[in-house]
Structures are given as C-alpha cells and as structure tokens.
Amino acid sequence: MNEGFIAVHVGAGYHSMQKKHAYKTLCKKSCQKVTIMLKNGCSAVEAVSTAVVSLENSLLTNAGCGSNLSLSRKVECDASVMDGRTLNFGAVGALSDYMNPVLVAKELLLHQNNENLSLHRIPPCVLVGEGASQWARSRGLKNVKADLLVSENALHTYSKYKRKVEEAENDPRKFIQREPANNKILYSEAAEMENNACISSETWLPGDESLMLDTVGAVGMDCCGNVASAVSSGGIVLKHPGRLGQAAIYGCGSWAQNSLSSTEPAVAVTTSGNGEHLIKTMFARTCAETLISNTDGVTGFHYVFNTKFLESPFLIHTSEKLAGVLAMKFDPVSNSVEVLWAHNTFSMVLGYMSTHLSKAVVGYISFVIIKLIHIQISVCHQYSLLLQWKETTKQ
Predict the structure, then answer these.
(1) Could you tell me the sign of the dihedral formed by the alpha carbons of 23, 25, 30, 31, in that order?
(2) How far is CA 78 from the centre of its chain?
(3) What is the pLDDT of residues 135-177, one digit of tens each?
(4) β-bridge partners, 354
(5) Alpha-carbon span 289 to 270, nearest angstrom
(6) Which helix (H) or strand (E) holds 5?
(7) Rounded to two decimals, what is the model's pTM?
(8) Coil, helix or strand for 354?
(9) pLDDT of 15
(10) What are phi and psi of 115, to 5 degrees?
C-alpha cells in the first residue's frame, strides 16, 4: 500500500502580490480536502477532479465561474482529466453553462471505462460547445444559465481590454508591443517552500494583466499507486469564440500514466501558460515522456522545459514563450514520489500534500533571481524556474 499524494496549482501567469495569501490559502484548502479523501480510499481520478473543482469554485482563478470572457462576452471553459491506470482521457471545450467543466470531462472519461455503445460505436473522449452541454445534461449533470458564470471582475477586465483593442484598431499608433521578458535564470530550493517563505519579486513587472494565463490543475496518486491529472481553464482574455486551449487537447494540458513495469516510474503532468504554445509542443505528454526516460527528474525537467519548449522548432518564430508545468513522478523501485514544477511567467502558485503530512506545503513563486546552490546551468536567451521536493513514502 502506497501513500496518497496531491499537488495543485492555480496557474502560471500573473498573480497579484496583494492576493498571494488568498491564492496560497486556496491551494492549501484544496490539498487538505483531497488528502482526507485519499486516506478514505478515493481513486486518483476522483482526487484530482475534486481538487480542480475546489479551484474552479473560487473567483480568484481563471476557471469555471469568474473565467476570462471571449470576444462575444461569454465564459467558454476548457477542461480535461486523464487516468493513468486505464490511459483514458476525457475533455470538454468552449463549455459555457457548467460551473465545473472538469466534472463533465471526468464523466466523459468514466463513460469510456464503463459503457459500450450500440452498433460498435466508440464513446467520445472530447466534446465541445453545445454538443458537450447536451451530452452532460443527458448524463444527469446540472447546467446553469451562462450569465451566472460571468463575474464582475471578469466583466471589468473584458471592458477594459475590449476598449484597448478598439482604440488600437482605430489608431495603430497607440498599439505598443510588449517587449520579450528579460533573460534570466530562476532557481530556488524546496526548503523555501517548506518554511512557507514567500519569494519577493524584483522590479520587473508585466506590461499589463494580459499575462493572466492562470489555468488551474492537479496531479495525484491514490493509495493503490494509480496516478491521474486534471486541468481547467477559462482561456485568454478576448479569445475568439470557440477557441480551444491546451486544457481541452490530448497530450497538451494534462497527462498521466501508471508504471508499465516494475522498474518504470508513474508520472502525471498538468500545464499552464499560452495554450497555443503548449498545443504546438504537446507539452504535457512531452514532459511525461522525458520524466519517464530520465532517472534524474531535475535534469530531465530542465532539459524538456528548455529544449522541447523554449527552443522548440515549432515555436521558432515566437518571440515570447510562456509556460508553466507541474508534475509528479512515482518510482516503484525506491517507493518515492517527486514533485517538480517550472515556469517562465511572472508567477506561479501551487501546493502539495501527502497522506502522512500534517499540513500542505504551499508557495507563491514570483519573478526573482535566487543564488544557485546545487545546480549550475547556463541558459541563453531565456529563463526558467525549477524546484524539486522529494519524499520517501512509508514502507
């Protein structure tokens, strides 16, 4: 019997320093709630889905109620869940009338496990828009009026940037391109977060709030050693109606797979950032494959973030590449869990907890240079952040 584990994040993007305590508290409560469930024997799929529901229910996040609004002034949510035991995947996109789109994604995943359709039809794994809404209602999931998902803050942000877009279109001279981020390397040790230390930011600040790419996600393992991942997002501000981000695309927003042998690790990954960039690099699956093939999680994670994303040939013409990733790796040989994360955005907020810890570890990680202690790595033209925590589970 293994220890259960859960890790959550509220996105890689821009998070107000004034709200850092609220973000950390949200992650803490989510981890604590799910840890109790894991102690009572819930599955990994149930654990990550419940964790993401708690994040969707907060107006602090860009997921569920309070999500960014599209050009047509609507909330359109993407979400997905992947089960590492069955390798099944369920996702929804551009969903406008459900408080918790991750629950619709989970239902799609479970539908694949339990049912066969007549005439040898194949159960869907991805549904979008009105088709997704109709299917969810047919499964007994209760929808709400779309307007109930529109928060006052999201409406204010929509109006602000809609006005800016209109001004720029009417007078191109008013349009100012944001400069690419400074070339910096960011590192810290997990001890900073073990003590709940808040890392202060430097003088660099994003040009505006359009960096709020705060997709939420969770990775987890149940007490039977099964892993799962889930992700949910309201997408970018003023996105085109019907646009799908990485949270709805296979291999891009979430990935999970159990150990396929007695020596191969189990992995679960969830991503955040610019959806188009994460889709072009299939970043969730790419991270998972690298963690499986590399015995050293730190080295592998650094390699995949830089080589497969920042230096990816699929993003060669992209000047500003924004991403964040949270992953867990379970090694059945050493019976240990590693949780790793990286981002090159202004901030990332996350938390994690195992079933034998008395409290969750949470942190707000912001744009800062910290003295390198154990790892000396040179990165040209870009910057990245990598932290690692390792816990040996009870025998």
Answers:
(1) positive
(2) 12
(3) 999 999 999 999 999 999 999 989 998 998 888 888 766 555 5
(4) 5
(5) 13
(6) strand 5-13
(7) 0.86
(8) strand
(9) 84
(10) -130, 145
CA 112 – CA 278 distance, rounded (Å): 26
Burial 150-169 (b: 16+ CB within 10 A, else e): bbeebeebbeebeeeeeeee
Q: Are strands 323-331 and 89-95 parallel, antiparallel or unpaired?
A: unpaired
Is residue 348 within 8 Å of residue 331, measured between CB atoms?
A: no
Query: For residue 324, what are the β-bridge partners?
Result: 272, 343
Rounded Cα distance between 136 and 223, Å, is: 30
Could you tell me what percent of the chain has a pLDDT over 70? 81
Q: What sections of 60-173 are H helices per DSSP?
A: 101-114, 129-138, 152-170
Strands ordered across the beta sheet of 336-343: 186-187, 385-392, 336-343, 323-331, 266-273, 254-257
Are 351 and 27 contacting, i.e. CB atoms less than 8 angstroms apart?
yes
The distance from CA 81 to its chain's CA centroid, rounded to whole angstroms, is 11
Count Cβ atoms below 10 Å from residue 33 Cβ, excluding itself. Answer: 17
Taking a C-beta distance cutoff of 8 angstroms, is the pair 168, 174 a contact? yes
| Helix, strand, coil in percent for the chain, rounding step 5 | 35, 25, 40
Chain Cα centroid distance, residue 236: 14
- Is residue 136 within 8 A of residue 100, CB to CB? The reply is no
Is 393 tagged catalytic?
no
Dihedral, 152, 157, 160, 164 alpha carbons, nearest 10: -160
Reduce the DSSP state of residue 95 to 3 states and report it: strand
- pLDDT, tens digit, 9 for 90 and up, residues 236-278: 889 999 999 999 999 999 999 999 888 899 999 999 999 999 9
CA dihedral 375, 376, 382, 384 (to 10 degrees): 10
Taking the CA atoms of the chain, what radius of gyration do you get in angstroms?
20
Torsion of CA 11, 16, 22, 26, to 10 degrees: 0
Nearest CA-CA partner of 256 in 4, 5, 84: 84
DSSP assignment of 186-202 equals EE--HHHHHTTPPPPP-
- Among candidate residues 215, 281, 286, 355, the one labeled active-site is 215
Q: What 3-state DSSP class applies to 96?
A: coil
